[in-house]
Specification:
Phenylalanyl-tRNA Synthetase, Chain B, domain 3; 13 helices; five-stranded antiparallel beta sheet; six-stranded mixed beta sheet; 3 domains; Uridine Diphospho-n-acetylenolpyruvylglucosamine Reductase, domain 3; Rossmann fold; alpha+beta
């Protein structure tokens, strides 16, 4: 047997003994797993359920439990195995996983992750990001991905986040289920301990991979597992269970904070003057009516709901001081690829702007949507009547450009052209959007600023067919 393969056999393998110990070991049967699945989605015989399967004891037990469900419901199970290619035995592990799935009659998909520069010094977060990006590609609309996280994982995550100074959201640690890509991520073993899962593997004589890197305490999670939690459990035997209980209470607190933030967002909601902002905009004059903790809670919730990420506490405090306390007309907070802006009396959310000045002009026949990949935009034409751009005047096609400076446009009922720069200023178009709005040129004359202005020379009139152009972020 390879040293990385483990099989633990129970001393009394009789059927009756197996069933009674099974109940004690996991206090869970396949029907309970099915109930948890149905709490999230309408699972039936036509449902495809994906399982993140590393080959370790946790995911092996989960896969075995789900295979037993097929006696009740004809689930379409698919095991997903990500080969990180770091350990010398990684390819052998993939073969083991494929063989085990074949023995259970479960579909098996695997990929070898290309982690490039991380291969020699890959962190836990690098590995996780790589495999979860692949998992997202597999899921369809409202399909389920199951992982085998358990109570001990929960305790480790709680302590990791505690050392990072996390608040209620971070200390709530791993959630039983969350939205994931276009589907759901479900963790049906979260209320059960590592010991219970190992006992289940023993009862059913399951063979699984024992990754030697799990003993390396240079990794933070392994250090917490083998040093910190081990010491805590010696002093307080129920430490893991009590931490799990604390995370459940923190999750309830988090839900209450989110409910309060949702009410505050609605009270502060307003309409801004931008075209590329994400989600709702907030009225700056309403926020000082809230105390500082509620301002922080509101802004983090608002960013998280619309951008799926939130700024750090120190950076957010500095932004609040600039935008609200000092009452500056313009303030910016940037993290990762996301931004919060204050402009005049409105707060906006946006992606970090791209440098469009260097983009080459693009010819467009207006017959189908135009993807401006480098700008992160898509232009969508639509035929209309009595409005939009004149279809006849644009019949020969147009050129799409971005601002370089000194552009002018002929507005309706004006004898002379107007400076685009001054129009942006007069209409309070947010400064970060001014170079991002596509310019439509026809025969070297500015015909439109999408989706805002149309030149009087190119505007559809009377019953003339027109073209309306909308703009989407990609």
């Amino acid at each position: 047997m390879n040293y990385w393969l483990c099989v633990i056999r129970d001393s009394d393998p009789t059927e009756n003994s197996c069933q009674s110990i099974d109940t004690i070991a996991l206090n869970l049967d396949p029907q309970q797993v099915l109930l948890e699945l149905r709490n999230v989605s309408e699972v039936d015989g036509n449902s495809t359920v994906y399982v993140a399967y590393s080959g370790g004891v946790d995911s092996t037990v989960l896969l075995h439990l789900l295979s037993r469900l097929r006696d009740t419901i004809n689930l379409q199970l698919v095991a997903l195995h990500a080969n990180h290619g770091v350990d010398l035995h990684a390819d052998e592990w993939s073969i083991h996983c494929a063989n085990y799935c074949e023995s259970l009659g479960i579909d098996f998909r695997s990929t070898r992750l290309d982690l490039g520069k991380f291969r020699k010094r890959m962190s836990e977060s690098d590995a996780r990001a790589g495999r979860y990006a692949w998992f997202k590609q597999q899921l369809g609309e409202n399909e389920l991905l199951l992982t085998a996280h358990h109570q001990d994982d929960q305790a480790e995550t709680f302590l990791l986040n505690l050392m990072r100074g996390a608040g209620a959201r971070g200390l709530g640690a791993i959630q039983p289920y969350t939205r994931f890509a276009s589907g759901w991520l479900l963790r049906p073993l979260l209320a059960h301990s590592r010991q219970q899962i190992t006992q289940y593997a023993s009862i059913h004589n399951l063979t699984y991979i024992d990754d030697p890197s799990n003993l390396n305490v240079d990794y933070d999670r392994n250090y917490l597992r083998h040093v910190v939690l081990s010491s805590l459990s010696e002093r307080w035997p129920a430490a893991v269970q009590q931490i799990h209980r604390a995370t459940e209470q923190l999750t309830q607190s988090r839900h209450l904070l989110d409910a309060l933030a949702k009410l505050d967002v609605e009270a502060c909601r307003t309409e801004g003057t931008g075209f590329l902002s994400i989600g709702s905009q907030l009225n700056v004059r309403q926020l000082p009516k809230l105390d500082r903790p509620r301002q922080v809670n509101l802004l983090r919730y608002w960013a998280r709901q619309n951008l799926q990420s939130e700024p750090g506490r120190n950076a957010l405090d500095e932004f609040i001081n600039t935008a609200l306390v000092l009452d500056k007309d313009f303030a910016e907070l940037t993290w990762s690829n996301q931004c919060i802006y204050r402009y005049q009396n409105v707060l906006y959310l946006a992606r970090r702007q791209k440098d469009t000045c260097r983009l080459d002009p693009v010819k467009w026949d207006l017959n189908k949507p135009l993807i401006l990949e480098q700008a992160g935009l898509k232009l969508v034409p639509r035929l209309v009547k009595k409005s939009g751009l004149s279809a006849e005047k644009l019949a020969g096609g147009v050129t799409v450009r971005f601002r370089t400076g000194a552009e002018r446009i002929m507005l309706p009922d004006r004898a002379h052209s107007s400076s685009l720069k001054k129009l942006f200023q007069q209409h309070l178009i947010p400064p970060w959007e001014r170079n991002q709005l596509p310019l439509i040129y026809c025969q070297d004359e500015l015909a439109a600023v999408v989706p805002w202005l149309i030149s009087g020379r190119f505007k559809a009139v009377d019953n003339e067919p027109g073209i309306s152009i909308s703009i989407d972020r990609i």
